[in-house]
Amino acid sequence: RNRTCRQTGMTSSRGSIFAVTLLLCVFAISLMSGAVSASTYKFIVLDTLGGPYGIASAINNSGQVAGYTPGPEVDHAVKWDGRLPIDLHPLNGAVSQATDINDSGQVVGWSHGVPSSGDTRALLSDGVHPPAFLKPLDGDASWANAINNAGSVVGNSSTSNNATIHATLWQGDDAIDLGTLGGTSSFADGINDAGQIVGESRLSGDEISHATLWDGTSLIDLGALAGSSHFSFASDINNRQQVIGGIEVDSSGIQHVILWNGVSVTDLGQGFAADINNNGQVVGTRDFAAWLWDQGTGSNLNEFLDTTTVNAGWYLRDAAGINDNGWITGTAVNSIDGRTRAYILTPVPEPGAAVLMLLGLGVIAVMIRCQSSRMA
Asked: Among residues 54, 132, 205, 265, which is most buried (max CB within 10 A)?
């Protein structure tokens, strides 16, 4: 019986070919998984609750987006699970916005006009039940800015007699004052899954603020690493303890994106950084455009849009969040009809990566067929 595959010499060669094929597949998968290797992005417009605009704040690893869009009259906090928004607005709230979302779909933000006194309160929602309000420290107001996968929430809260604002950690019903670097006020903007928190704090004398890291036991002045005389802030921290933020480089107000990585500081150039994923990819805004920084290289995300999207009038105004799959969310404007909409970008891999993947899978398929034929 005629056989395509011969027994002689095949055992060692099959192992070698299989190993090489697996390496090709792994390499192709790594290329396809990162936003930096995308030749284009698939552009998805997210619907509103009927109002004229939608604003995205964050995206989780399932592709769910948090943000806000007008309801009948005012802004409503929403979660997009797909293209359609889920209204998270409190029944007794006047205005609400969502600022972050974790991988369980829990959303945090704030609502103004609650309770009946008209105060602003941090809110926490699972998207199913009515939002819960997070109590302030000792004052009347609170705002939630970020939530990790353990459900710990960080933000800001007014102190006794509403004298000032302090960075605040909420764990269950407990509101914890995170303190300052010596000044009167501080603000918390990001938290990772280890519970490390970043933001900014006023220094003694209240003349300047520095990027700050709360590591669970102490307050660390990150701004001193980037230039103690300059105003600085931290926007987010990932699970690799990489911190992203900004520094004001001169009196004109020009800001540069700064990456803190342990004791090292990297200046990524002019812009504003909003989010960093666990791969170290950073998104934000530069020159009124959505921007991506990857391995130290910055790119205008509008350059990755396909011709159809560009011809339809869409322009990416900012990028607010990026997940570990390289999916990006932010706000886009349309030059043709004037719409402002939240969006999602999903990376389309380089053709070379797809070819490598198909080649590797094809070799494996041939080997399996040959093995089956030999056994028959």
From this structure: 54
